[in-house]
């Protein structure tokens, strides 16, 4: 089955990340790099997102017309944000859970199955 | 599935001929899980199998109630399930492959028992606790959504929604149908045990109440624990939970008096206890202890055994119970355990020491009625009736359970009334 792992965090996680020293940051990236290497066979496309302050949202016009409303900021409001993602292909949810539990980044990992045409 | 009749109201519980109803319930409990397990195995599709099984059980319930239970219920159900499954998979794009599987599948084999995988799937942590309980009752024990709704005093619609959502998630999110790998077994087994224990507690709280026709969930909990003990005989915590449930049930007859009032442990007529069952449970606990892997269920069972084996309330081995609570705190460091330990401490070291240990909890149990009821009792023993009264009033404001309320009210009106409300 295919899943998307979404690496999420709250403001505190983001601040803790921003406060890391250069050495700590290097160490963290090394751990993350090792996690990706260990799971190489199961991981598809991946990405790290820039911060929510860089986000722009486009939503349909409230009047139902053709226009779209462009706003500054993320769709998900509040304290939680998605910092990155990895698409994985594994046997079942337990295998996905096993990967998420070993994710070396801080914060929460949300696991979502992808819709696949069968 | 019979639709929910009235939205948010608790459903009416039907009373039919008790013997038939009970015989049917027992046959269902033995057969439902096996049927579901075999069908999942054949179809590789939990959601589909569960749906088919529930349809068949519903038909069987009606048919058997009218015509009697067939000589081979499992054969009857398997034939019906296979027929029903064929109907359902015709709608499926891959039906040819599944039809072939169904045609070739032998009837459920009692050995090896597939119900273990079923139990682990129903109690998967990716499902909410409520969904785990409802799904286990339905899929493993064969209860109808109506029976589950009756037992939990919620609308049938709510249970249908809970089960449907859980069933969909199992399929859509890829929750596996298998016993977890060794490295995940301990936490996953703990989740299964906690579902069974939750079920037991739910049944224990509502038992002896005003609705004798209500399904006895403590019986289902004991049945599940004994099933698990048969399937995982080398897991001491499984044996511990089974012993714990049996020890509590062995004393059930003494918990309420003729007027359905709650009788406290110290005041119970110990002649009413089932001493043979207590001895058997103690034997089970000894078997668990020989596996040398203590855990919270074994320790709780040992505590209950201490109470159950005491010839009288006065002869209770409180120092031993206190030691067991110390051990329990290592496994289960919760304020509620500290509260229960305080009662044992009061018996061993006096009410002042017990009160001091409760004060150390700060406000963590401020909204728990037994915290205040216990403090009240200790304050009374210390000759501080004003503060005791205040604590009893706080306890009264925090519980809706009629039996517990009656007890607290009695204590507030007569100073020489009953002891701790535990």
Architecture overview:
The complex is a heterodimer of chains A (118) and B (422). Chain A is an alpha+beta fold. Chain A contains three helices and six strands; from the N terminus they run E-H-H-E-E-E-E-H-E. Chain A has helices at 11-18, 22-38, 93-101, and strands at residues 2-9, 43-48, 56-60, 68-72, 81-89, 108-113. In chain A, the strands form two sheets. Chain A has a four-stranded antiparallel sheet. Chain A has a two-stranded antiparallel ribbon with strand order 3-4. In chain A, a hairpin with a 7-residue loop joins strand 3 and strand 4. The two termini of chain B are 41 Å apart. Chain B has 19 helices and no strands. Residues 1-19 of chain B have low confidence and may be disordered. Chain B has 422 residues and is mostly helical. The interface between A and B is medium-sized, with 12 and 12 residues.
Key attributes of the depicted protein:
heterodimer, A: 118 residues, alpha+beta, 4-stranded antiparallel sheet, two-stranded antiparallel sheet, 6 strands, 29% helix, flat, B: mainly alpha, Serine Threonine Protein Phosphatase 5, Tetratricopeptide repeat, 19 helices, 66% helix, elongated
